[in-house]
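Hi again,

Forgot to attach this to my earlier email, sorry! This is the prediction with flavin-adenine dinucleotide bound. I've pasted everything inline since the attachment limit keeps bouncing my files.
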Amino acid sequence: MVEITVRGAGIFGLSIAWACVMRGAKVQVIDPHGPAAGASGGVVGALAPHVPENWNTKKQFQRDSLVAARDFWPMIDALSGIDSGYARLGRLQPIPDEHALTLAQCRVAGARDNWGDLAQWAIVDQVPDWVPPSATGRWVWDDMTARINPQMACRSLAAALQARGCPILTQGDDRGRVIWAAGAQDLAQISQHLGRDLGRGEKGQAAVFDLDLRDSPQLYIDSLHITPHADGTTAIGSTSERNYDDPMETDQRLDDLIAKARALVPALADCAVIQRWAGARPRAKTRAPVMGPHPVYPDAFIANGGFKIGFGMAIGVAEVMADLVVDGIDRIPDDFRTEHWIKG
Ligand SMILES: Cc1cc2nc3c(=O)[nH]c(=O)nc-3n(C[C@H](O)[C@H](O)[C@H](O)COP(=O)(O)OP(=O)(O)OC[C@H]3O[C@@H](n4cnc5c(N)ncnc54)[C@H](O)[C@@H]3O)c2cc1C
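Structure tokens for the complex follow:
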């Protein structure tokens, strides 16, 4: 039996552990801070696709991973008895002007070509009451987008792993093949070790409002995600900060984001903010996931670089890593290879 140690209990580490367990490996997960202590403990949880145009490896990989989520999360939740809050309820985006309308129409065709029967990208003129007006009276609607509660999803997956005999430890010795899925911290350490900026944490701040829109699609407006959650709250996010002192501290930037959300979405105007959150997204230099041999630890592997779409990519990353580490089958897309990242 193949033995595997996964270092890191964020969404990447937990998903990889699950894919390895499913292949019959004996797996342990080690994280000094426990599950979802890093970026994966966030609050936004938008599982949203890239626009269906200028098709590339990353978009295809993300599409397949998002599609797989539909069966994956209900199965994990059934096993764990914990609700990840997953629901594929779609997303609306206002179309502000004629130029955006023309672009949206091209993307309808792009979705037909690149998404096929998997999901739709359409232009609609009817939306729920809480959605603010659009200048053209039209919105883009896609039904590939889903929402998930990041913190609960990690708890659900951790419990499912434990139910399948995979321990989640805060310390322990490596056993068997080692996969590092240690997020922003590992990227920073690798950059330091190799004396080059290969990636690090990009800070993001987000907030949760006391607004129950649980059966509604999410809204993407003026670079802001508005994500209704299953527990009757609505999250908004996020800031993008390259320079910061404390990755976990919220500040005036979040106040500004909250003010912007209230101004854009009147339904939020009088709702209380019930949680403020900040964390560091693992941003590799290539802005793409990174998979393959670890560049510093001999004989170990790495899976990192989820950046802004780590939850959207995790299932696909996990399958590729399990193929590689358990079965010795290398399906890593060239753009995501360690070598490409180190060279690029
Ligand atoms: C504000 C914000 C909003 C976001 N919104 C979305 C969104 O809407 N949709 C989406 O898909 N993604 C979103 N993301 C991105 C997503 O959260 C990340 O891409 C994802 O969580 C990364 O997962 P990870 O497992 O690689 O890293 P992490 O979750 O950071 O996990 C890394 C883990 O490694 C552990 N670790 C560190 N050092 C060691 C060590 N030496 N040994 C063992 N373990 C170690 C840490 O304790 C941590 O638990 C958002 C991120 C932020 C910050």
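The radius of gyration is 20 Å. The mean pLDDT is 97.

That should be everything now.

G.
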